[in-house]
Description:
- It is globular, with a radius of gyration of 22 Å.
- It is of the alpha+beta class.
- Among the domains are: 200-262, Membrane-bound Lytic Murein Transglycosylase D, Chain A (Roll); 280-448, Muramoyl-pentapeptide Carboxypeptidase, domain 2.
- It has a four-stranded mixed sheet with strand order 9-12-10-11, covered by helices on one side. A two-stranded antiparallel ribbon has the order 1-2. Strands 3-4 form a two-stranded antiparallel sheet.
- The longest helix has 33 residues, at 3-35.
- It is built from 14 helices and twelve strands.
- 34% of the residues lie in helices and 12% in strands.
- The site of zinc ion (ZN) has 6 residues, from strand 9.
- Zinc ion binds next to strand 9.
Amino acid sequence: MNILCRAGVSGLVRMLRSLRSRTSALLPLLVALLAAPPASAGPRSTVTRKAEALMIDEALRGLPAPPTGSEVDAPARVDAAAEVEPEAEEGEEEEEGEETAEIELADDPRPTGRAGAGASKASKAAAKGEKARPKGAPECEFRSALYEHEVAAGDNLGRIAGRYGVRKDDVLRLNPALKKNPNLLRPGQKLKICPEIAPRLRQATEHVVKKGENLSKIAAKYQATPSELIALQPKKVAERLRKSPKSLQPGQKLVVMVSVSVLAELAPKDEVRGSLAASVQLPAGAGYHVKRPHMAYGTAYTIKAIQAAVSRYKQRRPKGPQVHIGDISSKGGGPLRGHRSHQRGVDVDVGLVHKGLVAAETRFVDANSNTLDVGRTWALIKAFADTGEVRSIFLDYGVQKALYEHARKQGVNEQTLDELFQYPRGLGHPHGLIRHWKGHKNHFHVRFRR
Ligand SMILES: [Zn+2]
């Protein structure tokens, strides 16, 4: 990719300037968003609301507005609004009407293979000033085009997978030569990827450490983790920072990466609309409660994967309360009241696991630090992720933080955290399998592949 070289110094300066102005334009919007009541509003106590506010506050501390173009699952054009959050999805009782983003999603992205269809789509895209979306590749099960990632300094398999919202195993499947030694990556090496998140071209630049800044703060500013930031530094500096992170001095120069462009057309469009030809109903089963059986129809693959995830979770954590399974799709699929997706039998809402009396509640209960069973919720999400059938999991950023920190304390290795979590890179920065989507504070939403 020569784009990086072509951008040149003047391009970089221009880009940095535009980023700065964009960032400041974003702040009021972010503030307004945070002040707004959550989408799944219902009667809740002030205490709960305070706890949530605290969680979000905590999650957002030190979190700058994202300086890069990014779009969370709605592959809208990269603009300031899309950087913050694309839309509210379903909270259970969410009113209809928050549908502004649907316009962006109306095109069916799936390559049809019909003669002429591609051409008309391309001209439509051109008319909108967009690049034509390339056809889905067979290696990517036609969900997205095949992309070539060039290994850069600081990359490891978990980070690379996370960047594109896929699993390490997906990368290994597409690049079998890596299987012998997945940790032996060299800069410049090319890897095939089927991106679930739009590829971003990045460029190295310099950050001068200011007084009061530490590694986490600087890392968050550039949508990185502290270890990732350290890995970008020359060997000696990196070694020193690893040994003593506090040796960081004001005035010191660090190498950082900034996104220079987003190849939005290379991410799959979200296929939220559609129907479900052969639907299978999730039967009642041991270990889980189906909230609305008449809304629990899915594809055979999805139903099987849900059952596999629950039984795997129950094996690991046999003592917990029943798993609360929310809506999947209606029989036959199509639009489902209260949801924007859940049309094709591949989406399921799953309640967070709580402790105490709340644990038995069949309605979804908002996460708060008093009742959230972080360990079990993490085990449940992991069980879903590990079915190998999941495209993405949507979960509130503040809840992600709680799970991330728990997992890290439990010794989950960093590559896996980098692979799975968007946190701590900022809620406007798409990364990992588990990503923020407004309205997912009392449940997580799993989107399956088929
Ligand atoms: Zn949902």
